[in-house]
TrEMBL record:
It comes from Salinicoccus hispanicus. Residues 2-118 form the RCK N-terminal domain. PROSITE patterns: RCK_C, RCK_N. InterPro entries: NAD(P)-bd_dom_sf, RCK_C, RCK_C_sf, RCK_N, Trk_Ktr_HKT_K-transport. Residues 135-219 form the RCK C-terminal domain. GO terms for molecular function: monoatomic cation transmembrane transporter activity. PANTHER family: KTR SYSTEM POTASSIUM UPTAKE PROTEIN C, POTASSIUM CHANNEL PROTEIN 2-RELATED-RELATED. Pfam families: TrkA_C, TrkA_N. This is Potassium transporter Trk. One of its GO terms (biological process) is potassium ion transport.
Amino acid sequence: MNKDYAVIGLGRFGGSIVRELIELEMDVLAVDIDENRVNEYVDIATQAVIGDTTEETVLKDLGLGNFDNVIVAIGDNIQSSILTTLLLKDLGVKQVSVKAQNDYHARVLEKIGADYVIHPERDMGRRIAHKLASSSVLDYLELSDEHSIVEIMAQEKLADNSLLDLDIRAEYGVSVIAIKRGDDIIVSPDPTVNIKEDDILIVIGNDDDLTRFEKSLINN
Ligand code: ATP
């Protein structure tokens, strides 16, 4: 069996990662300390096993050191999450992605070598807030602490202007990297071609600049 991914902690977050990876035809080893949780995933994951991942022997017995990708989705028990992450990095797992419960937890995880720290509630809150604040914003994806990508509906406000006319980069310091037009995606769009009302602009930039750009679309 080619176990591509291991997911530790089968709450709502870990569980949904297992389901999506399986949907994407990946092999997934699902691990939880709680037998009931494991039973829920016996028919879903490639393999589901009971185990306390704060014990090094358990990780070794499960062969977790051979995985390239392990997701630690233990949220509430911060101590277990940290210990598990530390042990996985010690065992040589290349990419350890960990769900953080709060900013302190995140900082510790980064210090001990977690490769990708996820803040599901915070990030989803941000995405939803941006969508709610402006009818033009379709999605908001954080790239780093300071940079994001926003999907913006052109609507009347931007339609019938070219990127050159709008001069978005000079005005707001953000760049339109692609335009979704129906089923097509126009990468690096020609700045002289007019934008259409139904176009979706994929805009990348610093968060402050993106916020200024979003605000300019709200009230006018
Ligand atoms: P979610 O917010 O994703 O729904 P949850 O609140 O249900 O999660 P958490 O406490 O965040 O639960 O933990 C997620 C899962 O991690 C639980 O199913 C729990 O049994 C499991 N878990 C906790 N500690 C360990 C451990 N040491 N080893 C393996 N699994 C663990």
